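Example 3.2
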Amino acid sequence: LKLYLLCRFLLVQATLDNTISGSTYWGTVGTLALSNPSTPKYINFNGVYNHLRIRYTKENGTIDKVLIRN
């Protein structure tokens, strides 16, 4: 996962559910604290998941790009 963003804290969450609903359980498979938002950051995790999502705490700016490579 290669990240270009302007935020302070990021969570990578995953689920084994086949369909997403309001009751879907999301488990955190990786966390990343960002100190320099202009530098690309990497995070690695292992697993077999049906869906991934990225959650973040916004301080200022926007997420420019999230690249997922599998």
